[in-house]
Amino acid sequence: MDFTKQYIDGAWVPSASQTYIDVENPATKTVFAKVPAGNAADVDAAAKAAAKAFPAWEATPPKTRVELMQKMLSYFQSIEDDVVQAVVSELGAPVTFARANHVRYQYERIESYMDLTLRAPFVEYLPKSTVYRRPLGVIGCITPWNYPLGQIVQKVIPAILAGCTVVFKPSQHTPLTAYYLADAFDHAGFPKGVFNLVAGRGSEIGNALCDHPLINMISFTGSTEAGSGVAQRALAGLKRISMELGGKSPCVLLKQDNYESGIRSCFNSLFLNAGQTCTALSRLLIPRSDKGKIETLIKQILPEYIVGDPTKAETKIGPLSSQHQYDTVKGYIQKGIDGGARILAGGLPDAPDAGYYVRPTIFADVTNDMAIAQEEIFGPVLCVIPYDTVEEAVKIANDTPYGLNAAVWGPKTLALDVGRRILAGNVYINDGPRDVEAPFGGFKESGIGREGGLDGILEFTEPQALFDHGN
Ligand code: NAD
Q: Does residue 202 sit within a domain?
């Protein structure tokens, strides 16, 4: 695969910038690829191609759009080993997790979007009118590095299935997976200009997307800080926006006999992508009366989470994605120590001589006003926060600027009641599995809009009412 080009108007072309960004393997700290540092001229070419392709793509029946997407998926599945390898090398994700979660789970999401497109209410007949849900036009998509494929799938696939065309910018830190997806779109024979890939830095490409008059909507996934700036810039031109942002999600353990499943699910959520998951359950709220018992269990279960070389099948926690991420997480561990939290496991990492590794670190006796409990660390750092009453647990769970995800473990009726009182877009009750047909997104500063399910498709449409005496 040649990573040095942009994919614009159905062809692999050189970037107008003629400059490049190095891609580093965080497990070895070696540069192993480079992608274009694209610029506004690349965005302009891609936006024009996407705008030109839009009318015909809008008029293409959903069934035909789905058939093409099925071809794309079939080809993409045939290159699975290359895609897994890319995720392992560019992100440092452990290979077993990369294959199951970063890659195969995305097939399920794509299939769900295809299935829902055939059932989506693109036309609704009301007693006095007909309402058409029309595709919004050209969508500028911006994604983060932490799930290099999943975040693309969540927005690019439904946008195209809804009848929109796309100019897509992957994260400059993990851009390679996106090239395999572009290759699959190319092989499937999508009309020119429906899907365009422009690699480059956030500020440059992001600003050009927000400012471009041919782009109708910005769909952004990333940090709350960058998202707020992107949203304001896009709204200056009255573009539609969709923002999937940060989180600081609670896992509430209600009083119960056996805490093992709750602890393990919290660890899986937090540790399996080395803490670099927007929905990571990074605050564990525990009944103070069982603090000793729960801390003992935490120490017993933690050794299952083997830290090491991401290419080994048994590894559960690989390196962090970059020097920047390593420095940030190390800084937060120091803040936790300075703020008086007690280290139950882990601690400050060693110098990152052979990769950006940070051991899972668990702070006990955390109070919810500490910086480590309020701010998104985005590393394998867990805050264990004791509470005295269920009322207090709900208050603590809701006491951050975020509202993306939550989990509640305990007797079902009480767990459901507590879950309904937590202000988060997604709440897991006991071992309830994720449902790809459900909407995904955040309350409060975790975002605006929804991805996933039917909501995730209709997000890329706008209703048009025709007053035609109805039906
Ligand atoms: P980031 O905000 O630094 O970057 C995200 C994307 O935005 C990248 O492509 C980047 O190049 C681009 N970008 C950065 N600054 C920009 C600017 N000024 N203008 C336009 N584009 C800009 O985030 P990140 O470090 O890549 O990812 C981690 C963050 O993403 C975390 O906060 C995490 O919670 C969040 N996230 C949220 C979700 C969700 O669905 N809610 C999913 C994954 C990650």
A: yes
- Residue of minimum CA distance from atom 39 in ligand 1: 244
| pLDDT 10s digits, 145-191 | 999 999 999 999 999 999 999 999 999 999 999 999 999 999 999 99
Whether the CB of 146 sits within 6 Å of ligand 1? yes
Judgement on whether residues 238 and 331 belong to the same structural domain of the protein: no
Question: Whole domain around residue 414: which residue ranges?
Answer: 249-437
Q: Give CA separation, 10 vs 46, 80, 167, 191, 194, in Å.
A: 10, 22, 12, 7, 8
Q: Whose CA is nearest to atom 18 of ligand 1?
A: 203
SS3 197: strand
Active site residues: 244, 278
The answer to whether the CB of 456 is under 6 A from ligand 1 is no
Whether 471 is covered by a domain: the verdict is no
Atom of ligand 1 nearest to the CA of 278: 34
Query: Alpha-carbon distance 220 to 471, whole Å?
Result: 38
pLDDT in tens, 281-328: 999 999 999 999 999 999 999 999 999 999 999 999 999 999 999 999
Mark whether 338 and 455 lie in a shared domain: no
How many domains does the chain divide into?
Answer: 2
